[in-house]
Amino acid sequence: MSRPDPDRIWKGPLPAVHPDGLARPRVGIGGISIESSTFSPHISGDEAFTVRTGEDLLGYYPFLAPGEPLRDAAEWVPLSHGRSLPGGAVAPATYLRMKQAIIDGIRESGPFDAFFFDIHGAMSVVGMTDAEGDLAAAVREALGPDTLVSASMDLHGNVSDALFDAVDLITCYRMAPHEDWLNTKQRAVHNLLERLRGAHGADPLARRPLKAWVRVPVLLPGEKTSTRIEPARSLYGMIPDVEELDGVVDAAIWVGYAWADEPRCHATVIVTGDDGAVIAREAERLGRRYWEARAEFAFVGPVASLDDALDEAMAEGAPRPYVISDSGDNPTAGGAGDVSWTLGRLLERADLADPARTVLVASVFDPAAVRAAEAAGVGGTVSVAVGGRVDAGPRGPVELTGEVFSVTAGDPVAGTQVVVRAGAVHAIVTERRKPFHHLDDFRMLGLDPETADIVIVKIGYLEPELYDLAAGWTIALTPGGVDQDLLRLGHSHLRDGVYPFDAGQSDPDLSAIVARRGAQEARA
Hints:
single chain, 14 helices, 22 strands, globular, alpha/beta, six-stranded mixed beta sheet
Protein backbone atom coordinates (compact mmCIF):
# COMPACT_ATOMS: atom_id res chain seq x y z
CA MET A 1 0.00 0.00 0.00
CA SER A 2 1.16 3.58 -0.60
CA ARG A 3 0.08 4.83 2.82
CA PRO A 4 0.37 3.10 6.19
CA ASP A 5 -2.76 2.16 8.08
CA PRO A 6 -3.86 5.37 9.89
CA ASP A 7 -4.58 3.36 13.02
CA ARG A 8 -0.89 2.46 13.13
CA ILE A 9 0.31 6.04 12.71
CA TRP A 10 -1.57 7.86 15.46
CA LYS A 11 -0.84 6.64 18.96
CA GLY A 12 -3.89 5.57 20.90
CA PRO A 13 -5.07 6.74 24.31
CA LEU A 14 -2.50 7.16 27.04
CA PRO A 15 -2.43 4.40 29.66
CA ALA A 16 -3.74 5.11 33.13
CA VAL A 17 -1.23 6.65 35.50
CA HIS A 18 0.59 4.00 37.55
CA PRO A 19 0.66 4.63 41.31
CA ASP A 20 4.41 5.23 40.98
CA GLY A 21 4.08 7.40 37.86
CA LEU A 22 3.70 11.14 37.34
CA ALA A 23 0.09 12.20 36.84
CA ARG A 24 0.84 15.69 35.58
CA PRO A 25 4.50 16.13 34.66
CA ARG A 26 5.99 19.47 33.73
CA VAL A 27 7.12 19.39 30.09
CA GLY A 28 9.10 22.01 28.18
CA ILE A 29 8.98 22.45 24.39
CA GLY A 30 11.67 23.85 22.11
CA GLY A 31 13.82 23.27 19.06
CA ILE A 32 15.00 24.46 15.66
CA SER A 33 13.85 22.97 12.35
CA ILE A 34 15.53 23.52 8.99
CA GLU A 35 17.03 21.36 6.24
CA SER A 36 20.28 22.97 5.01
CA SER A 37 22.22 22.20 1.86
CA THR A 38 25.94 22.83 2.25
CA PHE A 39 26.15 22.84 -1.55
CA SER A 40 23.87 25.86 -1.84
CA PRO A 41 25.38 29.37 -1.54
CA HIS A 42 22.17 30.56 0.09
CA ILE A 43 22.56 31.59 3.74
CA SER A 44 19.56 31.19 6.04
CA GLY A 45 19.49 34.26 8.31
CA ASP A 46 16.97 35.72 10.72
CA GLU A 47 14.56 36.45 7.87
CA ALA A 48 14.30 32.74 7.04
CA PHE A 49 12.87 31.66 10.39
CA THR A 50 9.47 31.85 11.98
CA VAL A 51 10.11 31.81 15.72
CA ARG A 52 7.20 30.76 17.91
CA THR A 53 7.05 31.19 21.66
CA GLY A 54 4.52 30.76 24.45
CA GLU A 55 0.91 30.11 23.45
CA ASP A 56 1.78 30.62 19.78
CA LEU A 57 4.15 27.66 19.99
CA LEU A 58 1.71 25.50 21.94
CA GLY A 59 -0.95 26.26 19.33
CA TYR A 60 1.35 24.91 16.59
CA TYR A 61 0.55 21.37 17.77
CA PRO A 62 -3.14 20.48 17.23
CA PHE A 63 -2.83 17.45 19.51
CA LEU A 64 -2.01 19.87 22.36
CA ALA A 65 -5.09 22.04 21.79
CA PRO A 66 -7.38 22.67 24.79
CA GLY A 67 -9.53 19.64 25.44
CA GLU A 68 -7.18 17.19 23.74
CA PRO A 69 -6.12 14.27 25.99
CA LEU A 70 -2.41 15.02 25.68
CA ARG A 71 -2.97 18.65 26.62
CA ASP A 72 -4.56 17.64 29.91
CA ALA A 73 -1.89 15.02 30.69
CA ALA A 74 0.88 17.51 31.49
CA GLU A 75 1.73 21.06 32.36
CA TRP A 76 3.14 22.34 29.08
CA VAL A 77 5.78 25.06 29.07
CA PRO A 78 6.40 26.20 25.47
CA LEU A 79 9.75 28.02 25.25
CA SER A 80 11.01 28.81 21.73
CA HIS A 81 10.98 27.07 18.38
CA GLY A 82 12.45 28.34 15.09
CA ARG A 83 11.25 26.88 11.81
CA SER A 84 12.41 27.69 8.29
CA LEU A 85 11.83 26.59 4.74
CA PRO A 86 14.83 24.46 3.74
CA GLY A 87 17.72 26.48 2.38
CA GLY A 88 21.43 27.00 2.70
CA ALA A 89 23.45 26.77 5.88
CA VAL A 90 22.28 28.89 8.81
CA ALA A 91 24.13 32.09 9.67
CA PRO A 92 26.06 31.51 12.94
CA ALA A 93 24.57 34.57 14.66
CA THR A 94 21.04 33.44 13.75
CA TYR A 95 21.67 29.97 15.15
CA LEU A 96 23.24 31.27 18.34
CA ARG A 97 20.32 33.60 19.00
CA MET A 98 17.76 30.80 18.62
CA LYS A 99 19.86 28.39 20.65
CA GLN A 100 20.30 30.93 23.44
CA ALA A 101 16.56 31.63 23.55
CA ILE A 102 15.90 27.95 24.22
CA ILE A 103 18.63 27.70 26.86
CA ASP A 104 17.49 30.89 28.57
CA GLY A 105 13.94 29.59 28.59
CA ILE A 106 15.02 26.34 30.23
CA ARG A 107 16.94 28.17 32.91
CA GLU A 108 14.19 30.68 33.57
CA SER A 109 11.21 28.31 33.45
CA GLY A 110 12.69 25.02 34.67
CA PRO A 111 13.06 22.56 36.19
CA PHE A 112 11.20 20.11 33.96
CA ASP A 113 10.27 16.47 34.28
CA ALA A 114 10.54 16.14 30.51
CA PHE A 115 11.30 18.05 27.32
CA PHE A 116 9.84 17.74 23.81
CA PHE A 117 12.79 18.45 21.48
CA ASP A 118 11.28 19.30 18.08
CA ILE A 119 14.00 19.36 15.40
CA HIS A 120 14.49 18.47 11.75
CA GLY A 121 17.91 16.83 11.98
CA ALA A 122 19.53 18.26 8.84
CA MET A 123 20.39 21.77 10.04
CA SER A 124 23.84 22.92 8.98
CA VAL A 125 25.37 26.05 10.45
CA VAL A 126 28.26 27.87 8.79
CA GLY A 127 31.47 26.70 10.48
CA MET A 128 29.89 23.68 12.24
CA THR A 129 29.61 20.00 11.30
CA ASP A 130 26.95 18.83 13.78
CA ALA A 131 24.50 21.61 14.56
CA GLU A 132 21.76 19.45 16.10
CA GLY A 133 24.33 17.64 18.21
CA ASP A 134 25.57 20.98 19.50
CA LEU A 135 22.03 22.13 20.23
CA ALA A 136 21.05 18.85 21.91
CA ALA A 137 24.14 18.89 24.13
CA ALA A 138 23.42 22.47 25.21
CA VAL A 139 19.78 21.62 25.93
CA ARG A 140 20.82 18.59 27.95
CA GLU A 141 23.32 20.60 29.98
CA ALA A 142 20.70 23.24 30.76
CA LEU A 143 18.04 20.67 31.65
CA GLY A 144 20.27 18.55 33.83
CA PRO A 145 20.57 14.75 33.88
CA ASP A 146 17.12 13.88 35.27
CA THR A 147 14.87 15.41 32.58
CA LEU A 148 13.49 12.90 30.08
CA VAL A 149 14.00 14.19 26.50
CA SER A 150 12.02 13.01 23.47
CA ALA A 151 13.14 14.14 20.00
CA SER A 152 10.92 14.28 16.92
CA MET A 153 12.72 14.39 13.55
CA ASP A 154 12.35 14.27 9.79
CA LEU A 155 13.45 10.98 8.26
CA HIS A 156 15.91 13.02 6.18
CA GLY A 157 17.62 14.13 9.37
CA ASN A 158 20.93 12.83 10.68
CA VAL A 159 21.67 11.17 14.01
CA SER A 160 25.14 11.96 15.33
CA ASP A 161 26.90 10.60 18.41
CA ALA A 162 26.19 13.83 20.30
CA LEU A 163 22.48 13.81 19.45
CA PHE A 164 22.11 10.13 20.32
CA ASP A 165 23.84 10.66 23.66
CA ALA A 166 21.77 13.70 24.66
CA VAL A 167 18.24 12.34 24.20
CA ASP A 168 16.28 9.48 25.77
CA LEU A 169 13.60 8.90 23.13
CA ILE A 170 13.99 9.63 19.43
CA THR A 171 11.76 9.01 16.44
CA CYS A 172 11.20 10.21 12.87
CA TYR A 173 8.68 10.29 10.04
CA ARG A 174 7.64 7.03 8.39
CA MET A 175 6.37 8.47 5.13
CA ALA A 176 7.99 10.30 2.23
CA PRO A 177 6.30 12.57 1.17
CA HIS A 178 5.85 13.50 4.81
CA GLU A 179 2.11 13.06 5.20
CA ASP A 180 2.73 11.82 8.76
CA TRP A 181 4.76 14.78 10.03
CA LEU A 182 2.16 15.70 12.61
CA ASN A 183 1.60 12.08 13.61
CA THR A 184 5.31 11.78 14.35
CA LYS A 185 5.34 14.75 16.69
CA GLN A 186 2.31 13.35 18.47
CA ARG A 187 4.06 9.98 18.78
CA ALA A 188 7.15 11.60 20.30
CA VAL A 189 4.99 13.34 22.90
CA HIS A 190 2.90 10.23 23.56
CA ASN A 191 6.00 8.11 24.13
CA LEU A 192 7.34 10.73 26.52
CA LEU A 193 4.17 10.86 28.60
CA GLU A 194 3.79 7.08 28.59
CA ARG A 195 7.22 6.71 30.19
CA LEU A 196 6.45 9.32 32.80
CA ARG A 197 3.08 7.78 33.69
CA GLY A 198 4.49 4.26 33.99
CA ALA A 199 5.71 2.19 36.90
CA HIS A 200 9.09 3.93 36.98
CA GLY A 201 7.87 7.37 35.99
CA ALA A 202 9.05 9.07 39.14
CA ASP A 203 12.52 7.47 38.97
CA PRO A 204 14.68 9.58 36.59
CA LEU A 205 17.06 6.70 35.90
CA ALA A 206 14.55 3.85 35.54
CA ARG A 207 12.25 5.73 33.17
CA ARG A 208 15.02 6.11 30.58
CA PRO A 209 14.68 3.41 27.91
CA LEU A 210 17.53 1.57 26.26
CA LYS A 211 18.44 2.65 22.73
CA ALA A 212 19.80 0.30 20.05
CA TRP A 213 21.61 2.20 17.32
CA VAL A 214 22.86 0.92 13.95
CA ARG A 215 24.77 3.13 11.54
CA VAL A 216 24.02 2.13 7.94
CA PRO A 217 26.67 3.47 5.51
CA VAL A 218 24.22 4.47 2.79
CA LEU A 219 23.30 8.02 1.72
CA LEU A 220 20.65 8.50 -0.93
CA PRO A 221 18.42 11.38 -2.04
CA GLY A 222 14.81 11.44 -0.94
CA GLU A 223 13.70 10.97 -4.53
CA LYS A 224 15.21 7.47 -4.41
CA THR A 225 13.82 6.58 -1.00
CA SER A 226 10.14 7.49 -1.27
CA THR A 227 7.85 5.24 0.72
CA ARG A 228 5.47 5.25 -2.25
CA ILE A 229 7.62 2.58 -3.90
CA GLU A 230 9.87 -0.35 -3.04
CA PRO A 231 12.12 -0.99 -1.26
CA ALA A 232 11.40 1.92 1.12
CA ARG A 233 7.71 1.05 1.24
CA SER A 234 8.40 -2.39 2.68
CA LEU A 235 11.24 -1.18 4.90
CA TYR A 236 9.10 1.43 6.56
CA GLY A 237 6.19 -0.98 6.57
CA MET A 238 8.18 -3.17 8.97
CA ILE A 239 8.34 -0.46 11.64
CA PRO A 240 4.84 -0.76 13.17
CA ASP A 241 5.33 -4.50 13.69
CA VAL A 242 8.62 -3.86 15.48
CA GLU A 243 7.04 -1.15 17.60
CA GLU A 244 4.34 -3.55 18.79
CA LEU A 245 6.79 -6.14 20.14
CA ASP A 246 7.03 -6.59 23.89
CA GLY A 247 9.92 -4.60 25.27
CA VAL A 248 9.90 -2.04 22.41
CA VAL A 249 8.80 1.60 22.71
CA ASP A 250 9.61 2.91 19.23
CA ALA A 251 11.48 2.09 16.03
CA ALA A 252 12.76 4.51 13.41
CA ILE A 253 14.75 4.55 10.18
CA TRP A 254 16.53 7.70 9.03
CA VAL A 255 17.47 8.03 5.36
CA GLY A 256 19.83 10.89 6.23
CA TYR A 257 20.34 14.13 4.33
CA ALA A 258 22.20 13.75 1.06
CA TRP A 259 23.00 17.42 0.33
CA ALA A 260 25.17 18.15 3.34
CA ASP A 261 28.81 17.14 3.46
CA GLU A 262 29.23 16.11 7.09
CA PRO A 263 30.33 12.87 8.82
CA ARG A 264 26.88 12.41 10.41
CA CYS A 265 25.18 12.13 7.01
CA HIS A 266 24.18 8.49 6.50
CA ALA A 267 21.23 6.19 7.14
CA THR A 268 20.48 5.24 10.74
CA VAL A 269 18.25 2.79 12.59
CA ILE A 270 17.29 3.26 16.25
CA VAL A 271 14.98 1.03 18.26
CA THR A 272 14.16 2.07 21.82
CA GLY A 273 12.71 -0.05 24.61
CA ASP A 274 13.40 -1.95 27.80
CA ASP A 275 14.47 -5.32 26.41
CA GLY A 276 18.05 -4.89 25.24
CA ALA A 277 18.17 -8.17 23.34
CA VAL A 278 14.95 -7.49 21.43
CA ILE A 279 15.76 -3.92 20.45
CA ALA A 280 19.28 -4.90 19.35
CA ARG A 281 17.94 -7.78 17.26
CA GLU A 282 15.32 -5.62 15.57
CA ALA A 283 17.66 -2.68 14.96
CA GLU A 284 20.16 -5.01 13.33
CA ARG A 285 17.45 -6.67 11.25
CA LEU A 286 16.21 -3.32 9.94
CA GLY A 287 19.75 -2.07 9.35
CA ARG A 288 20.74 -5.22 7.50
CA ARG A 289 17.68 -5.05 5.28
CA TYR A 290 18.45 -1.41 4.45
CA TRP A 291 22.04 -2.28 3.54
CA GLU A 292 21.01 -5.28 1.44
CA ALA A 293 18.51 -3.11 -0.45
CA ARG A 294 20.97 -0.28 -1.18
CA ALA A 295 21.19 -0.99 -4.92
CA GLU A 296 17.43 -1.54 -5.22
CA PHE A 297 16.55 2.09 -4.47
CA ALA A 298 15.46 3.88 -7.61
CA PHE A 299 13.92 7.22 -8.47
CA VAL A 300 10.28 7.47 -7.50
CA GLY A 301 9.38 8.59 -11.02
CA PRO A 302 10.83 8.57 -14.54
CA VAL A 303 13.99 10.67 -14.88
CA ALA A 304 15.52 12.49 -17.84
CA SER A 305 17.43 15.59 -18.80
CA LEU A 306 15.32 18.73 -18.96
CA ASP A 307 15.38 18.78 -22.75
CA ASP A 308 14.33 15.14 -22.97
CA ALA A 309 11.58 15.73 -20.41
CA LEU A 310 10.30 18.68 -22.44
CA ASP A 311 10.43 16.66 -25.65
CA GLU A 312 8.33 13.98 -23.97
CA ALA A 313 5.87 16.55 -22.62
CA MET A 314 5.59 18.34 -25.99
CA ALA A 315 5.08 15.16 -28.01
CA GLU A 316 1.78 14.73 -29.81
CA GLY A 317 -0.67 12.89 -27.58
CA ALA A 318 1.29 13.49 -24.39
CA PRO A 319 -1.00 13.41 -21.34
CA ARG A 320 -2.16 16.74 -19.91
CA PRO A 321 -1.22 18.30 -17.66
CA TYR A 322 2.34 17.02 -17.79
CA VAL A 323 4.35 17.82 -14.66
CA ILE A 324 8.13 18.21 -14.70
CA SER A 325 10.14 18.32 -11.48
CA ASP A 326 12.94 20.88 -11.75
CA SER A 327 14.81 18.93 -9.09
CA GLY A 328 18.22 20.59 -8.80
CA ASP A 329 16.98 23.81 -7.15
CA ASN A 330 14.17 22.38 -5.04
CA PRO A 331 13.70 24.89 -2.18
CA THR A 332 12.04 22.24 0.00
CA ALA A 333 15.26 20.22 -0.07
CA GLY A 334 17.62 23.15 0.49
CA GLY A 335 17.99 24.72 -2.95
CA ALA A 336 18.48 28.48 -3.17
CA GLY A 337 15.28 28.88 -5.20
CA ASP A 338 16.72 31.44 -7.62
CA VAL A 339 18.56 29.18 -10.07
CA SER A 340 17.50 30.39 -13.51
CA TRP A 341 18.95 27.54 -15.58
CA THR A 342 15.61 25.90 -16.37
CA LEU A 343 13.86 29.17 -17.18
CA GLY A 344 16.68 30.05 -19.55
CA ARG A 345 16.40 26.73 -21.36
CA LEU A 346 12.65 27.18 -21.77
CA LEU A 347 13.00 30.66 -23.25
CA GLU A 348 15.54 29.33 -25.76
CA ARG A 349 13.19 26.66 -27.16
CA ALA A 350 11.50 27.70 -30.41
CA ASP A 351 8.60 25.30 -29.81
CA LEU A 352 7.66 27.23 -26.67
CA ALA A 353 7.33 30.56 -28.49
CA ASP A 354 3.76 29.64 -29.50
CA PRO A 355 1.32 31.34 -27.04
CA ALA A 356 -1.32 28.74 -27.93
CA ARG A 357 0.38 26.43 -25.42
CA THR A 358 0.44 27.03 -21.68
CA VAL A 359 3.56 26.20 -19.71
CA LEU A 360 3.60 27.21 -16.03
CA VAL A 361 7.06 27.61 -14.47
CA ALA A 362 7.35 27.86 -10.69
CA SER A 363 9.42 29.65 -9.66
CA VAL A 364 12.40 32.01 -9.35
CA PHE A 365 12.72 34.45 -6.49
CA ASP A 366 14.07 37.86 -7.41
CA PRO A 367 12.74 40.95 -5.61
CA ALA A 368 14.24 43.38 -8.15
CA ALA A 369 12.52 41.62 -11.05
CA VAL A 370 9.25 41.63 -9.12
CA ARG A 371 9.50 45.40 -8.61
CA ALA A 372 10.14 45.93 -12.32
CA ALA A 373 7.08 43.88 -13.28
CA GLU A 374 4.96 45.75 -10.72
CA ALA A 375 6.05 49.04 -12.23
CA ALA A 376 5.13 47.87 -15.73
CA GLY A 377 1.69 46.75 -14.49
CA VAL A 378 -0.63 44.03 -15.69
CA GLY A 379 -0.73 44.02 -19.48
CA GLY A 380 2.52 45.95 -19.75
CA THR A 381 5.71 44.66 -21.31
CA VAL A 382 8.76 44.15 -19.18
CA SER A 383 12.37 43.27 -19.96
CA VAL A 384 14.19 42.15 -16.86
CA ALA A 385 17.10 39.98 -15.73
CA VAL A 386 15.75 37.19 -13.51
CA GLY A 387 17.41 34.91 -10.97
CA GLY A 388 20.94 33.59 -10.70
CA ARG A 389 21.92 36.16 -8.09
CA VAL A 390 22.20 33.90 -5.05
CA ASP A 391 23.14 30.66 -6.81
CA ALA A 392 24.83 31.70 -10.03
CA GLY A 393 26.67 28.39 -10.39
CA PRO A 394 24.47 26.75 -13.04
CA ARG A 395 23.71 30.03 -14.82
CA GLY A 396 23.53 33.73 -13.99
CA PRO A 397 20.50 35.97 -14.51
CA VAL A 398 18.28 35.21 -17.50
CA GLU A 399 16.86 37.94 -19.73
CA LEU A 400 13.08 37.68 -19.66
CA THR A 401 10.94 39.83 -21.96
CA GLY A 402 7.20 39.42 -21.94
CA GLU A 403 3.78 40.62 -20.89
CA VAL A 404 2.98 41.02 -17.20
CA PHE A 405 0.15 38.51 -16.82
CA SER A 406 -0.59 39.13 -13.14
CA VAL A 407 0.69 40.85 -10.00
CA THR A 408 -0.36 39.40 -6.64
CA ALA A 409 0.71 40.97 -3.37
CA GLY A 410 0.51 39.85 0.22
CA ASP A 411 1.47 36.18 0.19
CA PRO A 412 2.81 35.39 3.70
CA VAL A 413 5.61 33.26 2.27
CA ALA A 414 6.41 34.71 -1.16
CA GLY A 415 5.49 38.36 -0.61
CA THR A 416 4.55 39.86 -3.98
CA GLN A 417 4.38 37.43 -6.91
CA VAL A 418 4.32 38.24 -10.61
CA VAL A 419 3.68 36.14 -13.68
CA VAL A 420 5.42 37.20 -16.91
CA ARG A 421 4.22 35.53 -20.12
CA ALA A 422 6.69 34.99 -22.96
CA GLY A 423 5.13 32.86 -25.67
CA ALA A 424 3.88 29.70 -23.98
CA VAL A 425 6.03 30.27 -20.91
CA HIS A 426 4.31 31.73 -17.84
CA ALA A 427 7.25 32.51 -15.58
CA ILE A 428 6.41 32.93 -11.90
CA VAL A 429 8.77 35.31 -10.10
CA THR A 430 8.45 35.85 -6.36
CA GLU A 431 9.74 38.43 -3.94
CA ARG A 432 10.84 35.71 -1.50
CA ARG A 433 11.54 31.99 -1.76
CA LYS A 434 8.42 29.86 -1.94
CA PRO A 435 7.69 26.22 -2.79
CA PHE A 436 4.69 25.50 -5.03
CA HIS A 437 3.05 22.38 -3.62
CA HIS A 438 -0.65 23.20 -3.86
CA LEU A 439 -2.92 23.95 -6.79
CA ASP A 440 -4.10 27.10 -5.05
CA ASP A 441 -0.50 28.38 -5.17
CA PHE A 442 -1.09 28.73 -8.94
CA ARG A 443 -4.74 29.67 -8.86
CA MET A 444 -4.13 32.71 -6.67
CA LEU A 445 -1.95 34.06 -9.50
CA GLY A 446 -4.70 33.65 -12.09
CA LEU A 447 -3.24 30.41 -13.43
CA ASP A 448 -5.08 27.10 -13.82
CA PRO A 449 -2.70 24.15 -13.48
CA GLU A 450 -5.43 21.67 -14.37
CA THR A 451 -5.84 23.08 -17.89
CA ALA A 452 -2.15 23.81 -18.52
CA ASP A 453 -0.16 21.76 -20.99
CA ILE A 454 2.96 21.59 -18.83
CA VAL A 455 3.57 22.48 -15.18
CA ILE A 456 7.20 22.83 -14.10
CA VAL A 457 7.87 22.97 -10.37
CA LYS A 458 11.07 23.15 -8.35
CA ILE A 459 10.54 19.94 -6.45
CA GLY A 460 11.75 16.35 -6.35
CA TYR A 461 9.08 13.74 -5.68
CA LEU A 462 5.64 15.27 -6.08
CA GLU A 463 3.66 16.40 -3.07
CA PRO A 464 0.15 14.86 -2.92
CA GLU A 465 -1.80 17.54 -4.86
CA LEU A 466 0.78 17.66 -7.63
CA TYR A 467 0.96 13.86 -7.69
CA ASP A 468 -2.79 13.69 -8.20
CA LEU A 469 -2.66 16.48 -10.82
CA ALA A 470 -0.02 14.87 -13.02
CA ALA A 471 -1.32 12.92 -15.99
CA GLY A 472 2.31 12.45 -16.95
CA TRP A 473 5.44 13.16 -14.95
CA THR A 474 9.21 13.30 -15.25
CA ILE A 475 11.91 14.24 -12.76
CA ALA A 476 14.30 16.46 -14.70
CA LEU A 477 17.90 16.04 -13.52
CA THR A 478 18.72 19.74 -13.44
CA PRO A 479 21.69 21.45 -11.73
CA GLY A 480 21.61 23.26 -8.39
CA GLY A 481 22.38 22.93 -4.71
CA VAL A 482 20.30 19.76 -4.36
CA ASP A 483 21.48 18.05 -7.55
CA GLN A 484 20.16 14.49 -7.72
CA ASP A 485 23.49 13.33 -9.16
CA LEU A 486 25.24 13.16 -5.79
CA LEU A 487 28.56 12.05 -7.19
CA ARG A 488 29.08 15.29 -9.10
CA LEU A 489 28.54 17.46 -6.02
CA GLY A 490 31.93 16.69 -4.49
CA HIS A 491 31.29 15.31 -1.00
CA SER A 492 34.58 15.03 0.90
CA HIS A 493 33.70 14.81 4.62
CA LEU A 494 31.49 11.72 4.79
CA ARG A 495 32.54 8.67 6.79
CA ASP A 496 34.57 6.11 4.88
CA GLY A 497 32.66 3.46 2.99
CA VAL A 498 29.34 5.26 2.43
CA TYR A 499 27.40 3.94 -0.56
CA PRO A 500 27.20 5.05 -3.41
CA PHE A 501 30.32 7.15 -2.90
CA ASP A 502 32.19 3.92 -2.14
CA ALA A 503 30.25 1.38 -4.17
CA GLY A 504 32.76 -1.44 -3.73
CA GLN A 505 32.70 -1.69 0.05
CA SER A 506 32.41 -5.12 1.65
CA ASP A 507 29.63 -5.71 4.17
CA PRO A 508 30.00 -3.27 7.07
CA ASP A 509 29.63 -3.92 10.79
CA LEU A 510 25.91 -3.56 11.40
CA SER A 511 25.85 -4.70 15.01
CA ALA A 512 23.86 -2.48 17.35
CA ILE A 513 25.23 -0.17 19.97
CA VAL A 514 22.90 -0.50 22.95
CA ALA A 515 22.99 2.24 25.54
CA ARG A 516 20.97 4.07 28.10
CA ARG A 517 21.77 7.75 28.46
CA GLY A 518 24.21 8.12 31.32
CA ALA A 519 25.32 4.49 31.08
CA GLN A 520 28.34 3.08 29.29
CA GLU A 521 27.75 1.98 25.71
CA ALA A 522 28.13 -1.71 24.90
CA ARG A 523 28.11 -3.87 21.81
CA ALA A 524 25.03 -6.04 21.62
